[in-house]
TrEMBL record:
One Gene Ontology molecular-function label: 5'-flap endonuclease activity
Top-level taxon in the UniProt lineage: Eukaryota
Pfam families cross-referenced by the UniProt entry: XPG_I
Residue span(s) of domain XPG-I: 115-186
Protein name per Swiss-Prot or TrEMBL: XPG-I domain-containing protein
GO biological process: DNA damage response
Highest classification ranks of the organism: Eukaryota, Fungi, Dikarya, Basidiomycota, Agaricomycotina
Organism: Paxillus rubicundulus Ve08.2h10
Length: 294
């Protein structure tokens, strides 16, 4: 809801073609295929959720059938899709639950389908979301195709979210970090702060009720971001609740009382600002698109 004003809905094929011509012009060459990064693990989990009930009545391998049609939708667009799967070294706990590191039962079949469609894939060291965001930052891919906007927290530059606005074609909500900053006024640091206040994937602390109830202004958010920045670099909460410049306008006792002494948890903060990716070691090699869809 917060970033929706910065999103633009358009057909995936149209967006991919325009982006391909733009990149071709920048490179001084013919139009090139737009490179889209996809969280393969998320696709598998979403496919399983659809058939959680009445699985027996859905026919043989309904999850793989669903994934097949999703791949077919991408195949129709003028783009190359690269899928990234969660690695074994991803955080052990997420949203308060233990993370299973065993390979997903759909992984092998799904990866075979990916290759059959001419797309590519690899397994990240940690979380696929962080891997895709880093690839986007380094221009290895042009956009991240997700069902949510979590990758912005990890620094993604362009995120596409699927939408049912036009069921007859594959449409996406496109949002870039530049529009997010200038249109909504949310730079990455404020997004991280918002996630920390909401509890996020790695922490159960939730201040979002007090945050929204306080009617926090842009100045209030900036002041809180300064506190997070101070905590990150100095390791001390210091005067994070002080209001020296008077930006807050009044006191917020409920919010102040709800903030833990160790907020933000430096270990949780590091998960967002320095996530484990393939670039975190010297063993990473560039994954070049092969078998490009014609």
């Amino acid at each position: 809801q917060i970033i929706s004003p910065a999103c633009e809905i358009q057909p995936l094929r149209e967006f991919a073609v325009v982006e391909g011509f733009r990149r071709g012009a920048e490179l001084g060459s013919e139009p090139v295929l737009m490179r889209i990064g996809v969280d393969g693990s998320m696709w598998m989990h979403e496919a399983c959720a659809v058939f959680q009930h009445n699985h027996a009545g859905a026919g043989p391998s309904p999850e793989l059938q669903m994934l097949f049609y999703c791949l077919a939708g991408l195949h129709k667009a003028a783009c190359h899709a690269h899928f990234v799967f969660d690695g074994k070294d991803r955080p052990a706990t997420k949203r308060g639950k233990r993370v299973k590191i065993a390979p997903h039962f759909l992984a092998r079949g799904f990866q075979e389908l990916i290759v059959a469609f001419g797309f590519t894939w690899h397994t990240a060291l940690g979380e696929a979301e962080a891997e895709l965001a880093t690839m986007n930052c380094l221009a290895q891919i042009d956009a991240v195709f997700m069902s949510d906007s979590d990758t912005f927290v990890f620094g993604a530059q362009c995120v596409m979210r699927s939408t049912d606005a036009k069921p007859t074609t594959v449409c996406v909500e496109v949002c870039t970090n530049n529009v997010l900053f200038h249109g909504v006024g949310l730079p990455q640091l404020e997004l991280i702060l918002l996630v920390l206040c909401c509890g996020g994937d790695y922490d159960q602390v939730s201040l979002i009720f007090y945050w929204l109830d306080s009617g926090a202004t842009t100045h209030a958010r900036r002041l809180a971001c300064q506190a997070v920045d101070q905590r990150l670099h100095l390791g001390s909460p210091g005067s994070r609740l002080a209001n020296h410049c008077g930006f807050l306008g009044r006191k917020y006792p409920r919010l102040a009382e709800a903030v833990p002494d160790d907020f933000p948890d430096i270990n949780v903060l590091v998960q967002y600002v320095e996530p484990l990716t393939s670039w975190s070691s010297m063993n990473w090699r560039e994954h070049q698109p092969v078998g490009v869809v014609q």
